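Re-run with default settings, no changes from the original entry. Doing this only to confirm the output is reproducible before filing.
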Amino acid sequence: MLSNRFLLLIITTLAALFIVGCSGKQDNANTTATSTVTPPPNQALIVASAPQAVLDQRKARGEQDEAKPDLHVVSPAEGAVINGSVVGVKLHLAGDLKGYKPHKDPDTQKGNHVHVIMDNEPYEAYYELEQPFELRNVVAGKHTLRVFPSRPWHESYKSEGAFRMVTFTVKGGGDASKPTTTNSGQTMANNNAAGSAQTPGEGKDMKPSMAGDVDPTKPMITYSRPKGEYKGAEADPIMIDFWLSNARLKGDGGEYRVRYIIDDDEPRFIDKWEPVWLSGWLAGKHTVRLE
C-alpha cells in the first residue's frame, strides 16, 4: 500500500535539541544525540501554524519567499581528490532571486544563508558567499558535501536547482582525534573527538559519522531542522524541515510519506513537502528522527 511506503534515508538522520526553561539551566549538555533520552513527562505535541514572528518576516521580505534560487558548487568539484586537510568551499548563486541574497544582519545576527552539510553532520550556516568558507582538519577518506539556501528562520528553499551535492576524497587528511571546523571556528564534524571535555557547539553533540557511498539518483532526505538550543518564544512552536531528493510525497502527487519520531513517541507522518511546526515542547533534551 502506498500509505505504508516510506522514504528510507540513505544517510541515517538523528538530531538533538534542547528546550531551555525559564531558568535557562541545562541538566546534561554533553549527552550525545544517540544516547538514551528520557523524554519529559506528559508532553503532548500538536501541529501548529508558523509563529507570528515568522509571518511578519515573510510579509516584510516581499517577493523573496517566491524566489527560485539556483545554487552551484564551484569547489570542491564532483569527484575531486584533495591532498591535505583543508577544503575550500565556493558557491555560486543564480536563478530568479527576487532580491534574495545571503547576508547576516549585524544587529539581529540573522539573515538569509546557505546550509552547508558535510557527511552526516548538522549544517553550518554560510552567510557571506563572497567571503571564504573553508573546512579545516578534514580527515582522510570519501566525503559528501550538501548545500541549499535558507531563510532567516532556517526554512529551506525547495525549488528545483536549490539543492546540490558533491562527493570528494581527501588524502593525507587531518587529525582524527580533533573535530573538523570552518575557518571561523565552527564545528562541522566531531570525527573521533566525541570524548572531548569541551562542550559541543549548537547541535553538534553527535557521534562521529561519515556519509559513506551516497547514490544521488535514489530517494534521499537531507535533515535540516530542528537543531541546537531553543529558548523563550523560539521554543514554541519549533519547525521540522528537510530537503527531499528524487521523490514526491503523497500530498504532492507522489507515492511516499516521511515518518518522524520525537524522542520515543509514536511515529507521525508528513505527506506534503513543507515545514511542520510543532507546539507543546517541554524543557529538556529531545531527539528527532526522520525516515
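The first helix runs from residue 52 to 60. Residues 2-290 form a domain with the Immunoglobulin-like fold (CATH 2.60.40.650).
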